[in-house]
Amino acid sequence: MTTATLNRPTPTDEAARRRRNRGKKFVRSLPGWAGIVFLLTIGIYPILWLFLSSFKTQREFIQESTFALPEQLNFQNYIDAWTTGDIARNFLNSVIVTVPSLTMVLLFGVGAAFAVEVMVWKGRNLTLLLFVSGIMIPGQMVLVPLFIAYFKLGISGTYLPMIITYVGMGLPLTVFMMAAYFKAIPREIFEAATIDGASMLRAFFSIGLPMVRNALFTIGLVTFLSIWNDLLIALTFTTNADLRPIQAGLLNFSGEFGQVSYGPLFAGICINVAGLLVLFIVLNGKIMKGLAGGALKG
Questions:
Q1: Distant-in-sequence, close-in-space partners of 27: CB < 8 Å, separation ≥ 6
Q2: Collapsing DSSP states into helix, strand and coil, what is residue 119?
Q3: What is the pTM of this model?
Q4: Are 75 and 205 in contact (CB under 8 A)?
């Protein structure tokens, strides 16, 4: 028997070595998996707790522990939230306010960004600076002057004050972000379109808009969430309770003397959160593409 034959590892030794390597890899991966479990816990647990709490009765909220499970699935909370709490009306108000506000913010914002970044004209840099300066103005500073202006115009009892305010506050950030995306597009593309006889409107709708489509989804979702989840503007400009959007409508579950109907309140919050989660899951791929596209420079 030669020395090479003696030093050759046997199948048993090879299997033992592989087990040791797998054990080492498992130990090294433990901190990473622990971090993932921790992040999932702090992300999922509040939503799970909110969902389970929406089935509790008023007695369970007052007498039982905060973290106690509901004794039974009390779907009456959802019925009360949708009917008695008027969440259905508040939800419709949110849609009526959010859809036109979001449409105008995206349409005017993308158009303005295209004009200041792609088109060449005198004063475009100053115009972009004026848009960006709007980001630095706190919204709370202009609420009282806007309320007085809307009252004098006679539109304080309608949806218009909220829509106009959301559009005005959403445009600066939209213009600033979309200008950065348009800057990443090579100028030669628009120059070639101009040589081929395309007008500015044709270049915008046929070339510019499709190329920033993913970015439009990202900014659109951010703007949508800021409008949908707003409470301050909704409370300031809705003098009529029938016009309140869903965030302000959740106040309907608070009684005259501070008593809160916790079950229907949690159910109403769950209805709101469920819709937002579904929207985020559906548009998640578009959002990631938009964020990645914003990191590229042409």
A1: none
A2: coil
A3: 0.78
A4: no
